[in-house]
Specification:
The chain is mainly alpha-helical. The protein has one domain. It contains seven helices and four strands. The chain has helices spanning about 1-25, 30-50, 75-85, 90-115, 125-145, 155-175, 210-255; strands spanning about 50-55, 60-65, 180-185, 185-190. It has a two-stranded antiparallel sheet with strand order 1-2. A two-stranded antiparallel ribbon has the order 3-4. Helix 2 packs antiparallel against helix 3 (about 75-85). The protein is globular.
Amino acid sequence: MEHPIFLLITFILMGGAFGLIYGLKPSFKTVFTVACIGCVISEVVKTFSCMEFEMLDGQIVPYISMAHVPLHLCSIQILFIFLVRFMKNDSHAKSTLVAFMFPTFIIGGALALAIPGEISFTNPQSYQFFFYHGMLIVLGIYIMTQKEVKILPKHYFSTLAILGAMAFMSIYTNSILAHYSFENGEAVLKDITNFFFVIKSPLPSIIPFTEKWHWYLYICAIIVIAFVAIALLYIPFFVKAQKEKRKMHTEDLTSR
């Protein structure tokens, strides 16, 4: 019952955010300034709500589990939000990064809202989770409609390249953070993080991996889904580029 209620609250807040953005028409810089503040608040709430305490050398020490380290795609976007906020609008790096952010904001945020994991009305992290991912979707749609930073069809390929590189590197990250124990002189895997969901499916009960080829098939499916989903979000930019090309061709013919 909690999930539909959290979704309803999130959609209401998203609707209010869209109303403010398209009513007040703030600049790109202003929107991302607010986003930076939202990211800080979100991460502070997440950190303190996930804080655990254990005894170490006779003293109580605080820590958060590896699963809450900000290395998922949506969490890494915090760094990108801050970078984009302080880059110049005419920067090639900024347009490439913004072009990467908008589809991954929308797709990642939507998937997170659809598969939230454990949630509770008494856990502040649940509110943070829905607030943050709702904000990402709002930012993604805003990027698609803003005109200050130009997005081109070629950015579809740079977006896939960046996403692919990050997903590949996450295999190393998950392996580094894996927890092992030694039994009979051999390392035995006890626990492993699942950043970017490259280690196992977020729906393990539906898609269990019992053979090696299951994992390879899963990775292939993720790649295909990423190609198609991002392409669908890039359709407006493909269409716009074609219209501009035809317009320039027509003007060139009439000027002769």
